[in-house]
Amino acid sequence: MYNYLIRRIIYLIPVMLIVVTFVFFMVHLIPGDPAAVMAGTDATVEEVEEMRHLLGLNRPIYEQYYLYVVRLLQGDLGKSLFLERSVTLIIAERLEPTLMLTAFSMFIAVLIGIPAGIIAGVHPNMWSDKCTMVVAMIGLSIPNFWLGLNLIYFFSLQLKLFPPGNY
Fold it and tell me: How far apart are CA 98 and CA 154, in angstroms?
């Protein structure tokens, strides 16, 4: 087991390097100028050039890539174009409610899943086993985003039990 984990971690390194490289070059291949977008529609040529300098877009591509990787390793994910704040801080603000929601969801899944699995395993090919399998297959077949949106709609907008946003 220990060797398996070490091997998987070693395999993770080239995969992460490939993904980081892919994301970097895809962002650079997108049409448009990020500096012009960040500077705004009313920006002068000088303001756009200043923004390019601040973002490091006036440097050679290999230097941009190096700085990108170094900043990622330091946890610097840059500045949000829309919120104009550090992406790392935005993620940190939303980490606690995300972890709470994840823990609660896992608790509910274990609370329902283990007893259902035990009942289905004790009575194979009986109605309880078949019902458990049908519910499990339906649960696995429904896309998470679709189920989530419908649950928000039902519990927040129809029943008004929860606020629809802003946790």
Answer: 21
pTM value is 0.65
Gap between the Cα atoms of 67 and 65, Å rounded: 5
Do 119 and 130 contact (CB within 8 A), yes or no? no
DSSP readout, 119-134? Answer: HHHHSTTSHHHHHHHH
d(CA 85, CA 19): 25
Together in a domain, 60 and 19: yes
Structural domain count of the chain: 2
Each residue of 149-160: pLDDT tens digit?
A: 999 899 989 998
Gyration radius from the chain CA atoms: 24
Residues 68 and 40 reside in one and the same domain: yes
Q: Cα–Cα distance between 17 and 80 in angstroms, integer?
A: 23
Q: Is residue 37 part of a domain?
A: yes
Whether 99 and 56 map to the same domain: the answer is: no
155 is written with which tokens?
A: 């519990």
Helices (H), 30-86: 34-39, 45-55, 61-73
Residues 6+ apart with CB under 8 A from 90: 80, 83
- Residue 55 forms part of a structural domain: yes
Q: Are residues 109 and 145 in the same domain?
A: yes
State the residue range of the domain holding 68. Answer: 2-76
